[in-house]
Model the fold of this input.
Amino acid sequence: MFTKVLVANRGEIAIRVFRTLREMGIQSVAVYSETDRDARFVRFADEAYCIGPGPATESYLKGDEVVAVAQRAGAEAIHPGYGFLAENAGFARACANAGIVFIGPPAEAIDAMGSKIEARALMDRAGVPIVPGVTDPVDTVDDARTIADEIGYPVAVKAAAGGGGKGFRVALTPDALEDAFEGARRESEKFFADSVVYLERYLPEPRHVEVQVLADTHGTTIWLGERDCSVQRRHQKLVEETPSPIVSDDLRRRMGEASVRAAEAVGYTSAGTLEYLVSGEEFFFLEMNTRIQVEHTVTEMVTGVDLIREQVRVAAGEPLSIGQDDVDPRGHAFECRINAEDAANRFLPSPAPITAYREPTGPGIRVDSGVEAGSVIPEIYDPMVAKLIVWDIDRDTARRRMLRALDEYVVEGPRTLIPFHRWLLQLPEFIDGGACHAEVAKLAESATPIPGTEEAATPAADAEEAEPTVKRSLTAEVNGRRFAVDLFIPESQLGSAGAPAPRRKRSRTESGSGAGHGSQAPEQVVSPMQGTVLRVNVAEGDVVAQGDVICVIEAMKMENEVSAHQPGTVHKLSVAEGDSVGANQLIAIISEDAE
Done:
């Protein structure tokens, strides 16, 4: 067994791996960027080394530097977590070339599953159902039209090297195919340096269900149940659960057996996940994630298996500690992703310092986090603050336990998805096992107050006077009974120490938060967040319609469209591609054309 392992990641997943290593008696090594110098995960490790500036391309994605640090620290193995270098076959080979064990699958398996086109062909040969479509690259729009006519609309245009919703476009009709094709190619080139795309039938409203597998180097491959990950916004998961409320025992067995065949077909070892689209009693291969998943936690809660420990054992050449007959899932588990995002404002990122932090506790509750009071959620990384996981004997009892835990969770500073999760878990559709696609899409597409949450109840004056507020919680005693009172105080009325200050009326240029909903002045379009201008779609003098995309701003690994709030002519454009912008910074001035 290893004596020292480096974890090539940050935040909650780094701490998650460190904990298992500590239980196994293995020393841990962290690597960190200059931005993460004071992060909690850095202090959690036995040793820590700085590997570069904040941007991931200059630190966490520098595989050669990570390998060099492992050699310097005397680490025998590297665990990549998820994201960053986790599914990078070149990094896995670099580890091997340096005499360091990569805690993950063989590079050949990563390569095989890294291309969605090759993976579809492999799965088809292995007898795993795939969505009707093509397994070859589609080079031109004309080729795409021919294929779409054969497989039928709607069709999905997907990046061969894609993932996480990037390089994914849907054409509901033939008229929309060209835009979908070019958009998928463009986004794939940007995120993956690979413009290859393919086509497959788009399944409206399928369930997104995945199966966890484990495989060792001694010929054993097992599956550990399924996870339902259907609650998503913009193809990013929000809530996961196991078992799936829509999967029958027979379907579960067939999916598990297919997943074992899929893993064996590529010579897979370590932990991996087969993702499927499920419609009724049919399932279709979507992709394989050749790494540990964010939502691995719910599988651990119902099976009692530490998946990270199994990964380490397999990498060290040991057999799995369990066989298929030992897998006996019990109860029900949920995971809610606590992201620094404002669900009431189209899930816009909310990077900020955490001023107060308290995690829920009690039976059946687990929190995987990498933060504490004083931590900063930076804009340049994923917006995840923590993962809240609960277990109980059945789905509804676990759901109620999650609601209790969410009520106890305190995160002040950034806006988080806690109010969203409280709302979602009480929707009748969710209670009945539905995926709530329409409700979540409505929030993702427009600024929509969440019913029953503090975002919807926050008092405001007229649109011109509206401004951000800060919640202050007080207690009062009336006739011997104690009451909790929440006050929502406008930011302009707070002093430097957070106490109420003399009221100052905001000017028109200070009020508002973004284009199309409370912009700074009738003709102004402003940035709703801090970030980088990824693309500008208009030029000065262009005539635009309400809803036309003015530019796209990237923040916390998410693309956010800034749209025209009214029809008119662009008389001033204040940004260019590559510019950094702050929240409420002027993007453009759009003047309504005279009648």
The CA atoms of residues 342 and 348 lie 5 Å apart.
